[in-house]
Amino acid sequence: GQSLEQPSEVTAVEGAIVQINCTYQTSGFYGLSWYQQHDGGAPTFLSYNALDGLEETGRFSSFLSRSDSYGYLLLQELQMKDSASYFCAVCMDTGRRALTFGSGTRLQVQP
Amino acid sequence: EAGVAQSPRYKIIEKRQSVAFWCNPISGHATLYWYQQILGQGPKLLIQFQNNGVVDDSQLPKDRFSAERLKGVDSTLKIQPAKLEDSAVYLCASSLETGTDTQYFGPGTRLTVL
Questions:
Q1: pLDDT per residue over A18-66, tens digit each?
Q2: Cβ distance B111 to B36 under 8 Å?
Q3: Closest Cα partner for A4 from A91, A63, A77?
C-alpha cells in the first residue's frame, strides 16, 4: 500500500517562514508534488520535485530527498492569503501519472 | 486559456437516487481524472482516462459508480444508487499527455446525500 504523512495543522504569523513536511511510503515513486487549496476552492499546483534537492518558485520552495522518502514545502514572507490547505502528492508511476494525495496541512496565517 | 469546467457546482439528493456530474477539460489535454474529496481529506483518485480509454479505475466502486469519456473530450461521472457516504466534493482534473505532472483542477461538484 501507500501512505503519506503530513501535519494536520500549522499556524504562523505574517512575514514569517513556515515549513510543511511530508513523508511517504509508496510501492513506486516518480515525483512529489505540492498543491494549495483554499476553502471551497480547487487544488492548484505549486511545485514538483522528481530529483533530490530544492526547487524555488518565488516565495515557495520545495525539497525532496528520495533516499529518506521525505519532502517539504517552504513558504517565505507569509501573507494572509497563504491561509489554505496544502497537500503533498506522490506520482508513483510514470505511465499513469495519477497522484496519491496526503490528507493535507491546514495553514493559518495570523496578523 | 479556459480552465477545467464542471457542472453542477452543488447537488443535493436523497440516498438511493441517481446523480451525474459533467466535466470539460482544458482544450488539448489528453488525460482526465475524477477525484473524490471527503471533507478534511485529500482528493482520492476514482478513475483516469487517457483520451477516451480508461487507464486506471481500480478505486472506482463499480457497483454504483460509472464514468465515460466519449470522443476523448468531455466526461461524465454517475452514481447510481447514491449512499450517504458518497457525500463529498467530486473534482475533475486534466493534464497534458506529456511534460510535467501538473494537473489542473476544476471547481468541483459538492454532493450532499441525505
A1: 999 999 998 888 899 999 999 999 999 999 999 999 999 899 999 999 9
A2: no
A3: A91
Whether A44 contacts chain B with CB within 8 A: yes
Distance from the Cα of A44 to chain B's closest Cα (Å) equals: 7
A3 to chain B, closest Cα gap in Å: 12
Sheet strand arrangement including A70-75: A3-5, A18-25, A70-75, A60-65, A53-57
Q: Computed from CA positions of residues A32, B103, A107, A60, in that sequence, does the dihedral angle turn out positive or negative?
A: positive
**How many whole angstroms separate alpha carbon B20 and alpha carbon B99?**
31
Q: Kindly tell me if the per-residue pLDDT of B87 is higher than 70.
A: yes
CA separation for the pair B47, A96 (Å, rounded): 11
Q: In terms of CA atoms, which chain B residue is nearest residue A6?
A: B42
In this structure, are residues B24 and B73 in contact, taking their beta carbons and an 8 Å threshold? Answer: yes
Interchain contact A59–B (C-beta under 8 A): no
Residue B6 makes CB contacts below 8 A (sequence gap 6+) with B21, B22, B23, B24, B90, B91, B92, B106, B107, B108, B109
Alpha carbon distance A91, A50 (integer Å) = 9
Alpha carbon B47 to chain centroid distance?
7
Chain B residue with minimum CA distance to A95: B55
Number of neighbouring beta carbons within 10 Å of residue B110: 17
Cα A33 from Cα B101, distance rounded (Å): 8
Q: Contact at 8 Å (CB) between B30 and B72?
A: yes
